[in-house]
């Protein structure tokens, strides 16, 4: 998807008369800076049907993509081709930059949490399991800059039941992700990725 976008832009610049109608409709999904790119490990894919895999990229403003992401699009398909078919996994989606990256006092803001996902489903991008937090769209506040939306995939220990405490259920913000991971012995993520976006009006 990202490579195709770059090729289309290059062709638009090289082919006479291609500027204007074709070039103006082309969007480039820029890859993240080296520092942010380092978070992306293990070939985890985050797929929104209208644009494809947005892993490790900025969501561009063109084509109204940022607005659609925050107002229209439902939850993405999350695919992990290396999942072990008979194992279970826990998927976490968080914003570590709430209310902004310079002062993330509400870190982590929980956007989606699903446990008991079968590896066979993960391989094809089906997130079926126990939904502990319903998916909520990325909606960065105006003038808060870029926010990272991180996806962390953990292997769920056999016979382990994962849940949220009543206090955690009452609040999405200021979630202690480390305590959650430690409480259920999830260890390090088997794969992780993120995309960056900001308020569509900025």
List descriptors.
2 domains, disordered N terminus, five-stranded antiparallel β-sheet, globular, Phosphatidylethanolamine-binding Protein, alpha+beta, 7 helices, 22% helix, 202 residues
Which secondary-structure class do the elements indicate?
alpha+beta
Overall geometric form = globular
Mean pLDDT, rounded to whole units? Answer: 90
CATH level 4 superfamily of the largest domain = PEBP-like
| CATH level-two architecture of the largest domain | Alpha-Beta Complex
Q: Rg, please? A: 18 Å
Largest sheet: 5 strands, antiparallel
What does this structure look like?
Belongs to the phosphatidylethanolamine-binding protein family. This protein is α+β, with helices and mostly antiparallel strands. The chain has 2 domains: 1-30, no CATH class; 32-197, Alpha-Beta Complex (Phosphatidylethanolamine-binding Protein). Helix content is 22%, strand content 24%. The strands form 2 sheets. A 5-stranded antiparallel beta sheet has the order 6-5-4-7-8. A 3-stranded antiparallel beta sheet has the order 2-1-3, with no helix packed on it. The longest helix is centred in the N-terminal third of the chain and has 13 residues, at 2-14. The protein is globular, with a radius of gyration of 18 Å.
